[in-house]
Design brief:
alpha/beta, two-stranded antiparallel sheet, 8 strands, 45% helix, 14% strand
């Protein structure tokens, strides 16, 4: 048996090894199709960076705004996960330094035993944010829902968005698409398994985000207008 290497086109086709085109033109078209697929796949990520890069800041240099929006990131035994706690720590610092006047916490309360917004409120109060400076959105089931509800339900027109660095660009891009003029604070984290998972997840979530920005679907639950943010802003005490 000849020891020569088999060309790729001579390898037997099988369930896990598709046969490549045998002609030069066919191979060129296959390569072009792969390249086109890669370009199309990366377009949503490119859009997010183009829209949001210049608006990602730190707690220290983000422009002041009336409202901070903190996105939910899960609970553990009824308390914020470390990632969510870090978001809330950043929001508390924004409040303490006068960068924001009100904190809108938005998360999942679709089940009686799972209440992200109340857990977030309790944590913020423990960090020194007055309870009457916190407003809860109990139907922030995902980033798009939170952004749309911030604008349509709570009347937020401008906000500082607080989330992890791997998520902040998507949050800024979606909130701006929903009509909220936004800057984002990207909370830094050590690069553990959760961080890498979050970064990879964002690549796939970018496609959904781009579709939401174009199609502008209604959130899972819209409901009546709430005046919590407006009322909190009109009763801000002098510092």
């Amino acid at each position: 048996m000849s020891a020569r290497l088999l060309r790729l086109t001579e390898l037997p086709a099988g369930p896990w090894w598709p046969r490549l085109p045998s002609s030069r033109r066919g191979r060129r078209r296959a390569v072009q199709a792969v390249m086109l697929g890669c370009v199309l796949g990366l377009m949503p990520v490119t859009w997010m960076h183009a829209v949001a890069d210049s608006r990602v800041r730190t707690v220290a240099d983000v422009p002041a705004g009336d409202v901070a929006v903190v996105f939910g990131a899960g609970l553990r035994s009824g308390r914020p996960t470390p990632y969510l706690a870090h978001r809330l720590d950043a929001a508390a610092e924004l409040y303490r330094t006068g960068k924001v006047k009100v904190v809108l916490v938005t998360g999942d309360n679709s089940r009686k035993e799972y209440d992200e917004p109340d857990a977030m409120r309790t944590y913020l109060v423990g960090q020194g944010v007055p309870d009457d400076r916190i407003v809860s959105d109990y139907a922030g089931f995902d980033t798009w829902d939170s952004c749309v509800r911030a604008r349509k339900i709570f009347g937020v027109e401008r906000a500082v968005l607080v989330t992890q660095g791997f998520h902040v660009r998507r949050a800024v891009a979606l909130c701006r698409s929903a009509g909220v003029e936004s800057y984002g604070v990207g909370v830094s984290e050590r690069r553990d398994v959760t961080w890498y998972y979050g970064g990879i997840r964002e690549v796939f979530a970018a496609g959904k985000a781009a579709a939401e920005a174009v199609l502008r679907p209604d959130p899972t639950f819209l409901g009546p207008v709430e005046t919590g943010v407006t009322e909190a802003l009109t009763t801000v005490p002098a510092r």
